[in-house]
């Protein structure tokens, strides 16, 4: 079993200066290693059939892979002795981060999904460093031993569970201070091998939305708090003040710090709401059916439109920007991840179902009832079912999760009306 606990650090002034200096040096080294990979990629990625038959082919340069860049740390410390003050594992982790970022860009992940081109880290954009090996003896009372930094105080708001071993420690700089995330492992605790078979009695389904955060198949609703919307005006006022301050001034830095703390508070409020909601739902049933939403596609920008002369015309993006902001404020993807984690910890599971037609089919008779996004009530002419649209979708999600197919389509017209038309 693997878990992660995060604690706030209370470093001294000298320890803060050391950690900030480490972050800046690691940022420069990260940019250098990433630029080295980009140079090789741009100069040597040309296909063989793209070159003419009669030409001079220069000798290819060595590919700066993970191991060669790791070996380059030895001459780095000789040429730049100030890098010797960084703990070796922390410096080696910088190479690992470059490798992961570049591999996701070139090769993609295990599913073949590729990330965008990695960006160079600007000032204050490299915010964490990692100790890849720590021991439980490095934690004593309310202190943690960080190599080359010393014993640092932390707010031990919850104790380390018995039987767990500490593996890694990630030091992160946030708007309100420094934090440490400790990875704990207990190999004696194995995941449950008992497979839960979903049934109508031990399962619950929910439909995520924006008017209500979630609608359950039992007829209950979970109100949406809209944390960002409530703080949007205050955030806009601070951003206007920042625009009037001179770049690099102390007043501008203090205002940016206030903006960062406000964003941090919004994110924490949202995360706390997701944890509380997940706990309430899992108390109802161990199996939860949710839609397999592609949130990234739902909040993507509208494609540009052109007229016959090639001029760009309105594509509705200004109208959709408000919808995208509400989707980001709801945090559906984070909620599903938290719900899945808590379900696995409690011995349950979360089942993702195909969301196709779950908003256009009647949950009682499976009759197709087309609705626009503005229509928030479901009225079926076939079985006279009249319920809230989101409750209807939640019931359908549960049926799909239990094996009911929604591919069968029926007419909206009643049988008597169909004979009359014929």
Question: What is the 3D shape?
Answer: globular
Q: Any idea how many domains?
A: 3
The helix/strand order is: EHHHHEEEEEEEEEHHEHEEHHEEEHH
Helix content: 25-40%
Biggest β-sheet description = 7 strands, antiparallel
How many beta-strand elements?
A: 16
Rounded Rg: 28 Å
Q: Strand content of the residues, in percent? A: 15-25%
Task: Return the average pLDDT rounded to an integer.
Answer: 89
Structural class: alpha+beta
Q: Return residue spans where pLDDT drops below 50 for at least 5 consecutive residues.
A: 410-422
Strand order of the largest sheet: 2-6-7-1-5-4-3
* Tally of individual helices: 11
Distance between the termini: 66 Å
What kind of assembly state do the chains in view correspond to? Answer: single chain
Can you put this structure into words, describing what you see?
Helices cover 40% and strands 18% of the residues. The protein has helices at 13-44, 66-71, 73-79, 88-106, 227-244, 250-282, 295-298, 317-330, 332-345, 389-401, 415-421, and strands spanning 2-10, 128-131, 139-140, 143-146, 150-155, 165-174, 177-185, 203-208, 212-216, 221-223, 287-291, 305-306, 312-313, 349-353, 377-379, 386-388. Helix 5 runs antiparallel to helix 6 (250-282). The chain has 3 domains: 2-185, no CATH class; 203-300 and 327-345, no CATH class; 354-422, no CATH class. The strands form 4 sheets. Strands 2-6-7-1-5-4-3 form a 7-stranded antiparallel β-sheet. The protein has a 5-stranded mixed β-sheet with strand order 10-9-8-11-14, sandwiched between helices. The relative contact order is 0.09. The chain is an alpha+beta fold. The protein has 11 helices and 16 strands.
